[in-house]
Amino acid sequence: MIFKNKDNIKKDCFAYNGKTCKALDNTYCAMGKCKFYKTKEQAKKDEDKVFERLVTLSYKDQTHYVRKYGLRKKMKEKGLIE
Questions:
Q1: C-alpha to C-alpha distance for 77 and 53, rounded to whole angstroms
Q2: What's the DSSP call for residue 21?
Q3: 78, 51 contact by CB (below 8 A)
Q4: Where along the chain do its domains lie?
Q5: How many whole angstroms separate alpha carbon 31 and alpha carbon 8?
Q6: What is the model's pTM?
């Protein structure tokens, strides 16, 4: 999709890779409509909250979410599993 006003693109968004949006099919921030906009710092804080919550769940629930969302690598990186 070609945008008339590329100046509106939020280049500090966690999902913007320098060319397109990794989270959505279109770069909606160029149209001023993106509901997913977060800075990289905000996204990191939100991710940390997710993992804090995840470790409070039962082993069965942890396993379910790790498999469903492919979180094994991230959990290893954070030292939460071996």
A1: 17
A2: B
A3: yes
A4: 1-38, 40-77
A5: 7
A6: 0.71
Q: Locate 44 and state its tokens.
A: 């990191």
CA angle 72/45/25 to nearest 5° reads 75
Contact call for residues 46 and 38 (beta carbons, < 8 A)? yes
Tell me: the pLDDT tens digits for 23-78?
Answer: 888 777 777 778 888 999 999 999 999 999 999 999 999 999 999 999 889 888 88
Structure tokens at 51: 């993992």
Q: Dihedral angle at the C-alpha atoms of 18, 24, 29, 31, nearest 10 degrees?
A: 120
How many residues would you count in the chain? 82
Helices (H), the chain: 40-54, 59-69, 72-77
